[in-house]
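User: Run a structure prediction on this.
Assistant: Running it now.
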Amino acid sequence: MADLLITPQTRVAQLLDAYPQLEPILLELSSAFVKLRNPLLRRTVARIATLQQAAQVGNVEVGTMINRFRAAVGQDPLDGLSATTYNRERPTWFAEDRVAGTTEIAALLDRGEQPVHVVIGELQRLAPGSIHAVIAPFLPAPLLDKTKGLGIEHWVAERNETKTVVYFCRVTR
């Protein structure tokens, strides 16, 4: 599997399976990636998160990340890589009293559950105009990307080293 071409769409687990020698570089890029030493996160989040999403989680420029990995394994650099952006401005649809439920990602991970699937299920049952809160120990980039095509808007309300709060709303037009 050492023939894996490293791109922003490469999954973190694929990268580390094909090139285990890149783990120290990954850990050096952001302290957020130290969590990937947790076997549970390695089996869940790393299997679905792309390097593009990991760059967002770690607050690392995606081009820097990808090209560091590519250089370390002898691949040519990629040009023109740009980061995904997430809504960080308070939307007009947000009102605290419309929050219908909350999901704690850390609790799901502790139980070995796949957070994206659980939260997507919650969001699909969300009534129009209602809001669902997600509290995570990291930016849940795979979840944010997955909701884009579901008619659900998001707001990254709070983000620091240990906690991210995201609100989701099924907006009626």
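The chain has two domains: 12-72, 96-170.
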